Amino acid sequence: MPFSDQFQDLGLIGRGSFGCVRKVLRKSDQKVYVRKEISYLSMSMKEIRQLASEFKILRELQHPNIVEYLGHEDIEKDSMLHIYMEYCDGGDLSKLIKKFKEKDEFIPENLIWEIFTQVLLALYKCHNGVDIERVENLFNSTPDVQPSKVDNLYVVIHRDIKPDNIFLLSDGYSIKLGDFGLAKCLRHEDDFAKTCVGTPYYMPPEVIMDKPYDPVCDIWSLGCVMYELCSLRPPFMAKTHLTLQEKIKAGSFNDIPPHYSHRMRMCISACLIVDPSERASANQLLQDVSFKFFRKDWE
Ligand code: ADP
Ligand code: MG
Questions:
Q1: Which residue from 25, 88, 122, 157 could staple onto 167, CB 3.0 to 4.6 Å apart?
Q2: Of the candidate ranges 56-65, 94-103, 201-210, the one whose mean pLDDT is the lowest
Q3: What is the C-alpha to C-alpha distance for residues 88 and 4, in angstroms, rounded to an integer?
């Protein structure tokens, strides 16, 4: 049965840069999901094929900290792609930041570590790659546009880590990284200009300098998110895109509020290292975090 017959529309949640997001009900079990509706009218054939390949990889990216992807459907008559995924009922981090700002309170450090650890676990999964054999079986042939391969694995880079793409569940505990892979296919060459819906606060310096994407670019953006969770504002801000680019490339930022730990400062600094070859990887950061959990007396 096509997806469209399996789900019932429960109404619009919001509009994103590429189309609408709707809440939908799966008739078989009355579970709520989300449908992202994207028009591919302005995409080239190559981009559409790349998007379809990317979805197959997304399906393999199953992880408790990654928004679950159910599948997609091509609505040819409307030139639309409908993507079905898990519904995250606790809002996203941009809403959490806004809530604390309005209350004039800081986000508790424990919650910030919780968010960091869970996003890192998601990135660890992606950056260490999806099993190539499984993916190639899915394709039945080699995909048109090959994602980067390392040691027989497809490395997946998110490329658009920002508070709006990190979701909370209403259990008050679980964090899910969303919009995986979509950024890569839906973006065109002119990234900085294209991010016009929001200011590109989280863009890594190497991407500004037109260097190829590397997994550690996600770590930079995660560092910006961590900073923003502490300071309730991004580390790099400016009135114009040009000055923002200069600030990001210089990589200097104000200190986070004094009540946060030294360990938090170290962690943010390790993510916000301008030279990508010096920056911490997801694997290294995860080791540091697990060290913290085993040694609660660390501070
Ligand atoms: P953008 O393209 O700007 O990132 P999105 O299309 O991702 O926007 O999202 C639009 C709106 O839908 C946002 O308010 C976002 O929080 C919400 N949203 C997106 N995906 C989900 C999801 N899986 N669960 C709940 N809300 C979601
Ligand atoms: Mg989004």
A1: 88
A2: 56-65
A3: 20
Write down the catalytic residue from 92, 160, 164, 218. 160
Q: How many CB atoms lie within 10 A of CB 234?
A: 18
Q: CB within 8 A of 82, min separation 6: which ones?
A: 3, 4, 35, 36, 37, 38, 72, 73, 74, 75
Q: How far apart are CA 145 and CA 132, in angstroms?
A: 14
CB atoms within 10 A of CB 10: 15
Question: What is the CA(146)–ligand 1 centre distance, in A?
Answer: 27
Contact 7, 35 (CB under 8 A): yes
Q: Which residue has the tokens 């502490």?
A: 230
pLDDT tens by residue, 221-263: 999 999 999 999 999 999 999 999 999 999 999 999 999 999 9
Complex-level ipTM: 0.95
**Phi, then psi, of 12 in degrees rounded to 5:** -70, 135
The mean pLDDT value for 212-223 works out to 92
